[in-house]
Amino acid sequence: MVRPLRLHLTTIFSGRYVMPVLAMIGVLGGIAYVVRGSTPPPVAQPVAPPTVAPYRSYIAGSGMLEASTRNVAISTPVGGVVTKVFVKVGDRVRKGEALFRIDGRDLEAQLTVRAAAAAAAHAQILEAQALSRSSTRPTQAGRGFGTRESDEPRGSRQPPIHRAA
User: Fold this and answer.
1) Nearest 5°: phi and psi at 118?
2) Alpha-carbon dihedral sign for residues 84, 86, 88, 92
3) 112-154: per-residue pLDDT in tens?
4) Are strands 82-85 and 100-102 parallel, antiparallel or unpaired?
5) 3-state secondary structure string across the chain
6) What pLDDT score was predicted for residue 9?
7) Which tens digits make up the pLDDT trace of 1-39?
8) Radius of gyration of the chain from Cα atoms?
9) Is residue 158 part of a domain?
């Protein structure tokens, strides 16, 4: 007599066959993974053919070129894209000689924005000075009208700003 499929599956997954079936699936999956992973990767083809020496006998080698005295770090105070290089490989350079030019369009844009902000602040200062001259409000103890001493509260003066030369 043929058992229905549901009864057959219930018998398989009832408990005594579950672990052996899962173990067999795991073993077969592991074998497939090892077989598939053991094939060697394809060899990459060179982009360009190797150079051929024009001499009958020569010595070739690979390595790293280092300075004879000391290594010099090259850096810039600002980051950016190099637009022009003024030296070539092997050129001798002197201290202070320009090596490359960095694109300065973003710095020029910042300068324009800050110059406009400075002009607006200067206009506000002039407007405030004009308003303070035209005011006729009395001050403490009859010191006068609209003088600099009477307009500023005590302790409000800012120390001078020193800039690097």
Assistant:
1) -65, -40
2) negative
3) 999 999 999 999 999 999 988 887 555 555 455 545 554 555 5
4) antiparallel
5) CCCCHHHHHHHHCCCCCHHHHHHHHHHHHHHHHHHHHCCCCCCCCCCCCCCCCCCCCCCCCCCCCCCCCCCCCCCCCCCCCEEEECCCCCCCCCCCCCCEEECCHHHHHHHHHHHHHHHHHHHHHHHHHHHHHHCCCECHHHCCECCHHHHCCCCCCCCCCCCCC
6) 67
7) 566 666 666 666 666 777 788 899 999 999 999 988 887
8) 41
9) no
- Length in residues, the chain: 165
- Counted domains in the chain: 2
Residue 2, both tokens:
């043929």
62, part of any domain = no
Query: Does 40 fall in a domain?
Result: no
Q: How far apart are CA 86 and CA 74, in angstroms?
A: 14
Q: Determine contact, residues 116/130, Cβ cutoff 8 Å.
A: no
| Distance (Å, whole) CA 162 – CA 165 | 9
Q: How many Å apart are CA 150 and CA 79, to the nearest integer? A: 49
Domain presence at residue 132: yes
Range of the structural domain that residue 106 is part of = 102-138
Structure tokens at 5: 């499929």
